[in-house]
Design goal:
The chain is mainly α. It contains 5 helices and 2 strands. The protein has a two-stranded antiparallel sheet. Helix 3 packs across helix 5.
């Protein structure tokens, strides 16, 4: 069997690097949705746990990050292909990942970096 088209969930140091970069002001801070529980089904399907995938939002009960789902969709993977590659994933999980991303964008706080 050849190499899978579905990538690993990322190196373990990635979450630590992002946290350090945010603290140092190298990159902006992205806040999770404030009212995630009010978005239909999202809070039941997406979880953020510092012990799972470095605290990245993941599909609840898995180590599949929201970012992985979004990357696959951005690479023109069909929902059926995604579901075939990750059997534990459901259509509702994909929809929740998209809703999470939409809410995250709508509630992103952009701060200017000091250039001095």
């Amino acid at each position: 069997m050849g190499k899978s088209r579905f990538p690993a969930l990322g190196p373990p140091w990635l979450g630590q690097w992002r946290s350090a970069a945010v603290k140092a002001g190298i990159i902006g801070r992205l806040r999770p949705p404030r009212e995630a529980s009010t978005v239909g089904g999202m809070s039941e399907r997406i979880e953020i746990n510092p012990r799972v995938c470095g605290g990245q939002p993941v599909i609840k009960g898995t180590r599949i990050s929201v970012a992985t789902v979004l990357e696959q969709l951005a690479d023109n993977e069909s929902w059926d292909s995604l579901l075939g590659g990750y059997p534990e994933l459901t259509r509702e999980d994909i929809q929740a990942a998209l809703e999470y991303a939409r809410h995250s964008i709508l509630h992103t706080e952009i701060t200017a970096l000091d250039t001095a």
